[in-house]
């Protein structure tokens, strides 16, 4: 049996041009009692990688030395076509994949590339490629894959061509170190950002250059695939620079996970030219979706679109005759309504989003209860565990992480200024007063406890919803998580209140960073995600074994 392949080579303009087709590669079928039929193949003369075409459709690079595999149970040409839909809105009848044996992270045009395996569906135990043979077409066999290799393939930086590479996504510690370097810059820009009522474009560019937008992209797509605690730490650091900047970064970073919850065809649109999509999410009030041929027409106005001024996609909720839906539309097809005139968090630009009679193809719509649950379609397409968590478990931490980072900034700014203040009545330095030291100690303790409580909630989230979890989350589990998230945010706000009251009236002069923090925290604390008082009453009932009353169970 043989499978034909074709390679590509660099062209003069930095792109890729097809090389002459490589000879058919002889595949040896070995039957094993324990593992079924196993397929092996020799390395081609040109190097360790080769391209295989299934039934004349698409070619897929295969590297025999790779060690990550994923089971597929469909014929090669279907699985390859389905796989590439996540990058191309319509798969071509054939494509050439350049082979890059230097294992770097730069594409053919010198730009940073991103990586993924072709079809992530699980991990078997070794590097063999298992297959069953079926009828051959034109001397090219159609194969039913059981497992797949670990080769990572960069995104197209110039049209369709893609190259084999090794991902060099920044680690969590590297991302946090880059965030630390941005803190002074974000603080310096905060006043101008407030006047703009959005983040400056240079801040968004800094986030992109630092690799933040791939922080919550699956590793097989070249992302850092941060865990919840790592993500919270990153958001906390950025929020120490400016609460609005941390807020926008958090949503733009994490909302790629919303797109990865969709199926392969939709992902083909979302990630056609890069492995992340800058996305705004707005749920309320829900719009209306009317069924039409091929999809729905959607109308509505959604509030609080944080990040919409920087977003490419909008993930919206809508009611249809089929039930509640999640729909994703290009922001370019929406109207952004300038409604964000507020005293705090001004630089988030959280304006309204409006569409009227907009057609949304069916593949960019999905049942909201399924989409928001661990059973979403995208969870089967990736090894990134967070895509398989309920949606509220990956997003609701943001508000508390921003609050704690803002409290960190308040402590830092207070400590930097208190040594200069002299009490007029006593002519004593304020820093020498026991009450000042006590106040700062209490505030510091609150922030310390808030951070620990947030991390405890996130660690428990991983225990309950991770792939090694013992069973479904109980109401008591969810109560612990929800109290941890809302309680940590409340403690952060209390710490800010303590140092602000001790800082004196001069901080309320316009432009003082602490004055901005006062306004930002006043707006933040009214968000439902940090409403500790309501959550305490609901979670208390769950912990006492009397249920959660009429609170919406999927949102608990």
Automatic annotation (TrEMBL):
Amino acid composition bias (Polar residues), ranges on this chain: 1-11
UniProtKB keywords: Oxidoreductase
Residue ranges occupied by any Acyl-CoA dehydrogenase C-terminal domain in the UniProt entry: 397-531
Among Pfam families, the record links this protein to: Acyl-CoA_dh_2, Acyl-CoA_dh_N
- Note whether Translocase occurs among the keywords: no
Q: Which residue stretches belong to region Disordered? A: 1-22, 96-130
Annotated Gene Ontology cellular component terms: cytoplasm
Q: Which InterPro entries match?
A: Acyl-CoA_dehydrogenase, Acyl-CoA_DH_C, Acyl-CoA_Oxase/DH_mid-dom_sf, AcylCo_DH-like_C, AcylCoA_DH/ox_N, AcylCoA_DH/ox_N_sf, AcylCoA_DH/oxidase_NM_dom_sf
Q: Name one GO molecular function term.
A: flavin adenine dinucleotide binding
Quick one: a GO biological-process term for this protein?
Answer: fatty acid beta-oxidation using acyl-CoA dehydrogenase
Which ranges carry the Acyl-CoA dehydrogenase/oxidase N-terminal domain?
Answer: 190-269
Keyword Oxidoreductase assigned: yes
Domain of life, source organism: Bacteria
Q: Where is the signal peptide?
A: none
What protein family does this chain belong to?
Belongs to the HpaH/HsaA monooxygenase family.
Q: What is this protein called?
A: Acyl-CoA dehydrogenase
- What organism does this protein naturally occur in? Arthrobacter yangruifuii
């Amino acid at each position: 049996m043989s499978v034909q392949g074709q390679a590509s080579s660099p062209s003069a303009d930095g792109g890729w041009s097809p090389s002459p087709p490589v000879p058919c590669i002889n595949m040896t079928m070995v039957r094993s009692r324990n593992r079924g039929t196993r397929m092996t193949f020799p390395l081609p003369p040109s190097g360790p990688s080769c391209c295989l075409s299934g039934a004349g459709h698409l070619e897929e690079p295969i590297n025999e030395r790779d060690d990550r595999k994923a089971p597929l149970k469909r014929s090669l040409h279907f699985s390859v076509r389905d796989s590439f839909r996540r990058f191309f809105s319509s798969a071509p009848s054939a494509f050439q994949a350049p082979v890059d044996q230097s294992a770097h992270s730069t594409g053919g045009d010198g730009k940073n590339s991103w990586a993924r395996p072709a079809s992530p569906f699980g991990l078997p135990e070794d590097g063999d490629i298992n297959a069953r043979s079926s009828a051959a077409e034109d001397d090219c066999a159609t194969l039913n894959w059981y497992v797949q290799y670990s080769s990572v393939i960069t995104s197209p930086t110039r049209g369709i061509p893609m190259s084999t590479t090794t991902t060099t996504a920044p680690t969590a510690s590297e991302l946090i170190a880059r965030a630390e370097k941005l803190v002074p810059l974000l603080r310096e820009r905060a006043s101008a950002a407030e006047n703009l009522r959005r983040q400056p474009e240079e801040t968004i560019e800094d986030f992109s250059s630092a690799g933040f937008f791939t922080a919550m992209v699956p590793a097989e797509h070249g992302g850092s695939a941060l865990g919840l605690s790592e993500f919270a730490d990153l958001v906390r650091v950025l929020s120490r620079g400016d609460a609005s900047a941390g807020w926008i970064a958090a949503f733009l970073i994490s909302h790629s996970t919303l797109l990865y919850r969709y199926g392969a065809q939709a992902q083909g649109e979302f990630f056609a030219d890069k492995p992340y999509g800058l996305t705004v999410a707005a749920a309320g009030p829900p719009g209306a979706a009317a069924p039409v041929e091929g999809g729905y027409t959607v109308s509505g106005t959604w509030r609080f679109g944080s990040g919409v001024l920087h977003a490419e996609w909008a993930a919206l909720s809508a009611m249809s005759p089929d039930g509640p839906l999640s729909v994703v539309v290009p922001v370019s097809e929406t109207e952004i309504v300038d409604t964000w005139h507020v005293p705090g968090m001004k630089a988030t630009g959280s304006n309204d989003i409006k569409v009227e009679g907009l057609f949304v193809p069916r593949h960019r719509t999905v049942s909201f209860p399924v989409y928001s649950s661990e059973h979403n379609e995208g969870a089967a397409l990736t090894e990134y565990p967070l895509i398989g968590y309920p949606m509220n478990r990956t997003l609701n931490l943001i508000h508390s992480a921003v609050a704690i980072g803002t409290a960190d900034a308040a402590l830092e700014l207070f400590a930097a200024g208190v040594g200069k203040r002299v009490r007029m009545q006593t002519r004593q330095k304020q820093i020498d007063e026991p009450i000042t030291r006590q106040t700062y100690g209490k505030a510091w303790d609150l922030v310390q406890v808030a951070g620990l409580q947030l991390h405890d909630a996130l660690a428990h989230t991983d225990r309950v919803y991770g792939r090694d979890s013992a069973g479904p989350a109980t109401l008591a589990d969810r109560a612990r998580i929800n109290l941890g998230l809302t309680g940590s945010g409340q403690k952060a706000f209390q710490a800010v209140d303590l140092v602000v009251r001790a800082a004196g009236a001069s901080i309320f002069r316009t432009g003082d960073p602490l004055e901005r923090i006062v306004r930002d925290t006043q707006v933040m604390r009214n968000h439902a995600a940090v409403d500790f008082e309501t959550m305490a009453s609901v979670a208390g009932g769950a912990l006492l074994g009397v249920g959660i009353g009429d609170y919406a169970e999927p949102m608990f």
